[in-house]
Amino acid sequence: MALFIKEFKGKYQERTAYKNLVRVFNEHYRFEEKNIVIKQGKELSGSTLQSPDDIDATYRKKNGEGAKGYVANFTETCNSENDLQLITTTSVEPNTTDDQKLMAVDLENLQERTNIGEIKQGKPGRYSAGFDSSTCDICPFKDKCFAKKLKKKDLSIIRFTDDSVRVALQRQQFKASKDKLNIRASVESTVRSVI
Question: Which of 13, 14, 130, 165 is 20 to 30 Å apart from 112, CA to CA?
Answer without folding.
Answer: 165
